[in-house]
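Internal QA ticket QA-208
Title: Verify multi-chain structure generation after dependency bump
Assignee: T.L.

Test input:
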Amino acid sequence: MPDETRRPRVVIVGSGFGGLACARRLNRQPVDVILLDQHNYHLFTPLLYQVATGLLNPADIAYPLRTVFRHSPNVRFRQATVAGVDLAGKTVQVRGGAPVAYDYLVLATGSTDNYFGNQEIAEVSLGLKVLPDATRLRNHVLSCLERADAEVNTDVRRALLTFVIVGGGPTGVESSGALAELMEIVAGKDYHQISRSEIRIVLVEGLPRLLSAFSEHLGRYAQRVLERRGVDVRLKALVKAADEHGVTLSDQTSIPCRTIVWSAGVRPNDPTGTPSVPRFRNARIKVDGWLRIPGATGAYAIGDVASPEVGDQRQLPMLSPPAMQAGRYVARAIVDHVRGVTVQRGPFHYVDKGTMATIGRNAGVTHLPGGLEFTGFLGWLTWLFVHIYYLIGFRNRISALGSWAWDYLRHDRPIRIILATGVEPEQAPSVASGSTRKMG
Amino acid sequence: MPDETRRPRVVIVGSGFGGLACARRLNRQPVDVILLDQHNYHLFTPLLYQVATGLLNPADIAYPLRTVFRHSPNVRFRQATVAGVDLAGKTVQVRGGAPVAYDYLVLATGSTDNYFGNQEIAEVSLGLKVLPDATRLRNHVLSCLERADAEVNTDVRRALLTFVIVGGGPTGVESSGALAELMEIVAGKDYHQISRSEIRIVLVEGLPRLLSAFSEHLGRYAQRVLERRGVDVRLKALVKAADEHGVTLSDQTSIPCRTIVWSAGVRPNDPTGTPSVPRFRNARIKVDGWLRIPGATGAYAIGDVASPEVGDQRQLPMLSPPAMQAGRYVARAIVDHVRGVTVQRGPFHYVDKGTMATIGRNAGVTHLPGGLEFTGFLGWLTWLFVHIYYLIGFRNRISALGSWAWDYLRHDRPIRIILATGVEPEQAPSVASGSTRKMG
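Actual output:
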């Protein structure tokens, strides 16, 4: 049994699906857990696009982390921006604070948008990875409609009413479907002068079909549904350039627009910055079969930031289920180690329980591991129940379910407010700025 | 009967309680109405403090104006920032757009925080007048708790946990009560290291009692309830100076703090900028008994921005009921004029139906015009039903009622997320900035 007076400290960096699952599994285990995240909430990222399109409130998909661990005796959350990790010195550097030493590290820092080095595209695109992205996109889309309504120049008006979504994976498919539904609700109604036919939603995908992680059948189905709902699907097309006037595709088509939503790629958020750590070509940390960072004692990496080699140079998918399973696996491995269990646990094995996406009202796709597939209403219903199940907190579930019922019955996306909450407290000309500067 | 081919145009500036009531009353009347506001929603300002303290979502108290007038044939909303009003030329200047000509003007631009010329206090204080104020205050208060939790310097920690509310009117009383309830919920629970006794909430009021618009009895009651809930009420005290380290009161007490909420005064938002218009000493436009701006044909002013002289140099209170009544009165007067009604309507008469405030759970004060007063549970219940009744939109009512029920039963303020949605689209490094610059 471990010495109760000095329990090993586990530092978990990141409170996404992987980090949170790990911290929850370590609750009431003989370790002290410090969970670090730059935000004070766990974010249910698969529903970001519903915040962006006015269906859900931000708080419906964000759950305060301190509340999750309110009754936990050994898990502490701390809001902090991690500036670096010293794998040799076993410390995590925190911006504006003292370094945090660890006995065990769980790196679960996820991923961020990848613009593949194209700074110009990065500057004019809106991502959809964090909560402020979603409210910013909502503000932006509604502002475009407001401006188009008052615009007399037809070219500018057309560009304001053109929305380009880049990337035909689940995020791109779900976002364009939801955007089409929003436009159906407001065009000709809230905006009397704007007809649905003037609004263009373009979904750009480099591969020959949508949803390449799913079967060809499901990809074609998603395309048919989107096209029926008025989305212009461009396959085998890449965005070559983008600026404030619009995008240029690889086939030289240029599309004047004021909105570019980027969902065409992610790259790992890796704070270690150590060249000695082995990495895949896409920059994910190449952990061993037990999810340990090679050469770093006590350090694990899970989720989007890392993968073991799975079979022939392949990786785990960058999705929430492998992250959650890995989080729980690592928690058990740490407890084994602390308890001095001598029989080593087998390597991590990801169990694929299926993947799903929704294209909109009554239309979803679900792929189950046995090869079973649902589309349409059944696919949509499965999506709905799985998402309700995984939302954290009773209130968030009730609130999201209420919003979805409202949308389903009333065909409404009610949260159509343009609300910029201003700069972050640290930068605001308020008392906060003073205190931060002093405390920094 | 008016000529149907050229209907008189009514321009309403501001969509608060007065402007909205006027626009609604002009629905389906023989005029074309243009409603201008810098925000795309009507804001239910009396509940801002509940957004600031994590009980309601911003969208619960903000209702999209286009949705209000979705089925209206003659009322059009336009999101625009009014830069000025030319009363002689009968046009409204709009930032980044062509001037809007009017036949009738209804100036309903409300009021903004008044720091009485003290720029230093203005810079370090947080107001509570618009929706971004409320989310900013929520972010700020929660950030102070996060920082205090990690702070080792006891002086800094104490300042981070001190919240000063300036002004003992309804906003100040309601804010300090709600803040005390929020602290009760999180201290020692979400924040294990912070005890309630370390947290100081100070309410500063210059007069000898709180709620001076109510009876002395109700003011004393509010004070007792607040003090019982741990609020330090300082009467006959003014804030003389404030900076990023804290405030100094008129009795030379200095209170180190990082949060100053300002609710000690408002001044009218007057875009006319014409010295020829008569004004009260507090800068409100002095309209005639029919709410017309003297010397300006077809121009009315209602709500916080203006008042007729009521009796002996007195003014209408700066509250929503007189604004709403004035909005409806002016709408009727305009329709009379358009229809060529020759018998002039009598001057505007404000009917006081009572005022109310809530100090928190089970504790409210209600004053009815006959001198009837309620306190405690009954005062709180009255407050609750009146506020539900006046919230716009079935969904907002359901959502607010649900949140209040949740709070009542669970003692919870669940929306404890720190969410800065970034700068406004116009300033963001996104596609929007390009389009705005081009369109400007």
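Spot checks passed. The radius of gyration of chain A is 23 Å.
Status: verified.
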